[in-house]
Automatic annotation (TrEMBL):
CDD domains in the record: RT_G2_intron
InterPro entries in the cross-refs: DNA/RNA_pol_sf, GrpII_Intron_Splice-Mob/Def, RT_dom, RVT_N
Name of a matching Pfam family: RVT_N
Record-linked PROSITE patterns: RT_POL
Keyword Transferase: yes
GO molecular function: RNA-directed DNA polymerase activity
Keywords annotated in UniProt: Nucleotidyltransferase, RNA-directed DNA polymerase, Transferase
Domain of life: Bacteria
Keyword Chloroplast: no
Protein name from the UniProt record: RNA-directed DNA polymerase
Record-annotated Reverse transcriptase domain positions: 116-312
Enzyme Commission code(s) on record: 2.7.7.49
Enzyme class: transferase
Length: 312
């Protein structure tokens, strides 16, 4: 990590998570100004490069099924100061929901508090419940629940996501487009266009009802198959409970929409669906009109099936 005046950056210590993210300053002292300057002087491009190099090695290890190396690199990344800085920056500056408070009531952090938070991030931390917020569904007279974690949990989730995502990007099916880095709805539309422009195709247009809310925790953790400390941390997030109108409810299934790591966990839970639908296509009734041709085309054009999933 290159940072102008790196030797002068002092990592403030606090003796509790609450002090780390809940510190309220009445006025700016000279130390606060120094922290602001130090935060502004961090060379973020260098940090991004350092983290990306480790992520690239995790991806390659996962691609060749080298689990031992992948786990070692994931532990290295999670303990990396560069990765912790980026995780805190993303949840306090970059994310659209950065001004939404969890049960801790914290909406924003000063530079000093950000440094404190960086210094406190580690696996095995006690998890607080998410705060339920209801938002309207676009074009419908319905609302959907969001589960907002505390600032600390959001930062730790961002850090864990950095370590898990490259491992799973090496495994995910090629025709999956939702919640994946470097992919968008436009990529899915492009895949559909390329698939249907030559001749007519059959398309499966399906929706998974309440996908985030119905994920089975046991099966997800089995599929995640990570090292024990990280597994316990993910399980703690899944089982953290939700606070709705000052009432605490247990979470026996699902992963909260609003969690930084939730989209990745949902993709992990759905991983393998493409292969299952491919098997299902082979069971189509061959006696139906064009049934044989339908089965053949379905097997040849899986990309269309899964491109549609991300748009609907």
């Amino acid at each position: 990590m290159k940072c102008k005046g790196t030797s002068r950056i002092k990592m403030p210590q606090t003796d509790s998570q609450e002090k780390t993210v809940g510190l309220i300053l009445g006025h700016e002292s000279s130390d606060d100004i120094n922290d602001q300057l130090n935060w502004a002087l961090i060379e973020w491009d260098d940090l991004e490069k350092r983290v990306y190099k480790i992520q690239k090695r995790i991806y390659k290890a996962s691609s060749r099924d080298d689990v031992r190396t992948a786990r070692r690199l994931q532990k290295l990344l999670i303990s990396s100061w560069s990765a912790k800085c980026l995780a805190v920056r993303r949840v306090t500056q970059d994310n659209q929901g950065k001004k939404t408070a969890g049960v801790d009531g914290v909406k924003s952090l000063t530079p000093k508090q950000r440094f404190n938070l960086i210094n406190k991030l580690k696996l095995g931390s006690k998890v607080k419940p998410t705060r339920r917020v209801w938002i309207p569904k676009p074009g419908k007279d319905e609302e959907r629940p969001l589960g907002i974690p505390t600032m600390y949990d959001r930062a730790l989730q961002a850090l864990v996501k950095m370590a898990l995502e490259p491992e799973w990007e090496a495994k995910f099916e090629p025709n999956s487009y939702g919640f994946r880095p470097g992919r968008s709805c436009h990529d899915a539309i492009g895949a559909i266009f390329l698939g249907i422009r030559s001749k007519s195709k059959y398309v499966l247009d399906a929706d998974i009802s309440k996908c985030f809310d119905e994920i089975n925790h046991v099966r997800l953790l089995e599929k995640l198959n990570t090292y024990p400390t990280l597994r316990r941390q993910v399980r703690a997030w899944l089982k953290s409970g939700v606070l709705d109108d000052k009432k605490l409810f247990p979470t026996e299934k699902g992963t909260p929409q609003g969690g930084v790591i939730s989209p990745l966990l949902a993709n992990i839970a759905l991983h393998g669906m493409e292969e299952e639908i491919k098997k299902l296509s082979e069971t189509f009734d061959m006696k139906e009109k064009r049934g044989r041709q339908m089965a053949k085309e379905t097997k040849e054009n899986q990309s269309i099936l899964f491109a549609m999933r991300t748009i609907s």
